[in-house]
Amino acid sequence: MTQQTPSPGRRPGVLAVHSVDQIVISVPELEPAVAFFTAFGLDVRRHGQELTLHTHGNPHAWMRVVANGQPKRLQYLRLGIYPEDESAFRERIAQGGTACAPSPLGSSEGLWLQSPDGTPLQLVVADKVSPSAPTTAGPDRGLARDPAAAPTRSQATNVRPRGLSHVLVFTPDVSRLVDFCNAQLGLRLSDRSGDLVAFMHTPHGSDHHLLACVKSDAPGLHHTSWDVGSLDEVGEASEQMRKAGFADGWGVGRHVLGSNYFYYARDPWGSFAEFSAGIDFAPPTQDWVPADHAPEDSFYLWGPAVPEWFVINTEAAPPG
Question: Do 167 and 220 touch, CB atoms closer than 8 A?
Fold first, then answer.
């Protein structure tokens, strides 16, 4: 048997997914999604009754948005693995009894398993698209007004995210989902606040969190987070969304866990897309030491008051 050459950048001897390769959601109709994600600065491509979402200049499809006439729903997550790990993951899934049928919106490619919340997960051999080094500040986007530093408002151009940073999902049981992600996916805890919220990274190197979860009475998607080049771009992006007619949001502010600057734009279905800059990085060369933080130390360092609708899970089943 020919032995595979280890993939570059892979942490030796560690079995773990390396990336959130794609997020798949369904929505009632596509037109509001086209408007929102175009305003957000993504490269939106239509394919019949679905969209793929790209960052400009990058062929990778970070998200699929499928129109099915039903309320918005997180359909599944596709996670990237290294080729030399596929057989080990197959064995781990079999031993854990977590295998499931492919999502109706997915392909039979790769390995399928189900989270304890019932969310399908697809593991596919894919290139690593999570960051392999700390994000750096982008170049100054302003047009020179020597000696002034800021461009005029009329000269400002739209912010375009550089890539996906992470995804945060709702879960009825934070500890149960963290344990599952560690045992089945190899993700490691970065930080948490009891059973309220938890942040996980890949030991192969990623932002402070590749996947995070927050407590709710049902599973669902809270937000996707997209990397931009600076705090100034986060602020410009918030104005970009307001000008485009998407006035609801939270920020600008700075998180404690992850340290990133943020602005969350509320999408047409009540979930969020986050502009994020300067997030902490968990390198593959050393272990991140996790901590359990008090609630007041787990959310944000500064920023405006949190809107009540920011923590509502719109995918939760209505009261019966």
Answer: no
Cβ neighbors of 285 (< 8 A, separation 6 or more) are none
Q: Which residue has the tokens 């866990």?
A: 257
**Whole-number Å distance between alpha carbons of 19 and 115:** 17
CB contact at 8 A, 66 and 72 = no
pLDDT interval class at 1 (50, 70, 90): very low
Name the E strands within 247-293.
Answer: 249-255, 261-266, 272-277, 281-282, 291-292
Query: Of 250, 242, 202, which Cα lies nearest the Cα of 223?
Result: 250
Please give the C-alpha separations between residue 239 and each of 33, 76, 163, 255, 307, in angstroms, as whole numbers. 19, 31, 20, 20, 18
Distance between CA atoms of residues 49 and 62, nearest Å: 17
Give Cα 241 distance to the centre of its chain: 19
Which pair of structure tokens corresponds to residue 267?
A: 């999408």
The three-class DSSP label of residue 160 is: coil
Give strand pairing partners of 295.
Answer: none
Residue 94 CB neighbour total at 10 angstroms? 12
Q: Which amino acid is at 73?
A: R
Could you read off the pLDDT of 277-297 as tens digits, one per residue? 999 999 999 899 999 999 999
Q: For residue 231, which of 301, 124, 140, 118 has the smallest C-alpha distance?
A: 140
What pLDDT digit, counting tens, does each position of 237-285 carry?
999 999 999 999 999 999 999 999 999 999 999 999 999 999 999 999 9
d(CA 93, CA 89): 6
Residues in a beta bridge with 223: 168, 272
